Amino acid sequence: MNKGTVGAIAVGAIILLGGISAAFCAKRIPTGYEGVVYSMNGGVQNETLTQGWHLVSPTKKVKEFTIGNEQLLLTKDKREGSKENDSFKVSTADDASIAISFQMSYRFKPERLTDTYKKYKGMDGEDIVNNRVKAVLKSKVSEITTNYSMMEIYSGNRSEINDKITKYLNEQFSKSFGIEVMDASIVDVHPDKKLKKAIDNRVTALQKKQQAEAEQEEIKVKAETKLIKAKNEAEIKKTKAVAQAEANKKIAESITPELIQMKEAEARLKHGWITVQGAETTVVKE
Q: Treating both helix axes as pointing N-terminal to C-terminal, what angle do 158-177 and 134-145 enclose, rounded to 10 degrees?
């Protein structure tokens, strides 16, 4: 075997070994994720791996964290991400306990990834969500629902409750897990038979109360309308009476001895001897 052949074989072997090494050292970070690199010698690297292919030493480990929006579903029915009945119970202000289906949109904050990994060493993003976030999620949601009654959660202004849950979870999970919560909401309520009956009774009572209040309001409006009408009529009569009195006063003030004498003189000229009594001419023939 000549030297050229040996050289070619050596080069081929090097390329082959390089390809094998590259294959073992290559790490792909999926779209929407970043990777935290850790080694026994150097600890956690400050720079994370963005999406795409990277060459990583075999002595280093890469843990992936989602930085894109992810959905956590904890529902009664089977959906993607919720293979079983994952609904959970929350407490209410009136000491009830009611099961809910829940969803949360979240992502890990890129600027907090290395700190998050250091805090939960050995866990990637999925591990943290499944083993840590879910463990405290229920109690955190209950800390908000305890400010609302069972009826408010079941059929009230749920958007207000969901806004407060979102804000509270974002504050808590940002500190604990480096997670940003974009949206968190109660998507459905699942009362048991006993609780459903109690809710139905309350709904019926509430409807009766609202109906009674509506009827009372109608009666009140009618009474007020009648009173206003009576006041208006009284005011009209009063105005007319005042006007009549004013007119009579002016007439009375206008009757003077001079006016009476003038009227008598005018009547005598026309009819003979008469007597004028008051403002009107009364002819009395003598």
A: 140
Cβ neighbours of residue 110 closer than 8 Å, sequence gap 6 or more? 34, 48, 67
Q: Where are the beta strands (DSSP E) in the chain?
A: 26-29, 33-39, 43-44, 52-55, 60-66, 70-74, 88-91, 97-108, 179-190
DSSP state of 157: -
The model's pLDDT over 150-209, given as tens digits with 9 standing for 90+, comes to: 888 887 789 999 999 999 999 999 999 999 999 999 999 988 777 777 777 877 887 788
d(CA 182, CA 167): 9
Is the Cα torsion angle 139, 144, 147, 152 positive or negative in sign? negative
Q: CA 262 to CA 246: how far, in whole Å?
A: 25
DSSP string, 216-260: HHHHHHHHHHHHHHHHHHHHHHHHHHHHHHHHHHHHHHH--HHHH
1: helix, coil or strand? Answer: coil
Tell me the per-residue pLDDT of 79-102, one tens digit each, with 9 for 90 and over.
555 567 889 999 999 888 899 999
